[in-house]
Predict the 3D structure of the following.
Amino acid sequence: MSSERVRKPFKACTKCKLLVHHEVDKCPNCGSDTFTDEWSGVAIIVDPEKSEVARMLGISRPGRYAIRIK
């Protein structure tokens, strides 16, 4: 077994937790330029107005979000 860490396909905005590709320099959701690879769990929000999960996480825009960031 290799001890190398596998790079996650996305990085998470540290401000709003939106998951974006590594090539993105600025969060399209909140405008932040601070990201982390240390995140876990994914919530895909399609209709935030009707989503209890979006309400619990404080999400108001559709997208792919990390559940927890470190």
The longest helix spans residues 52-57. The two ends are 26 Å apart (CA to CA).
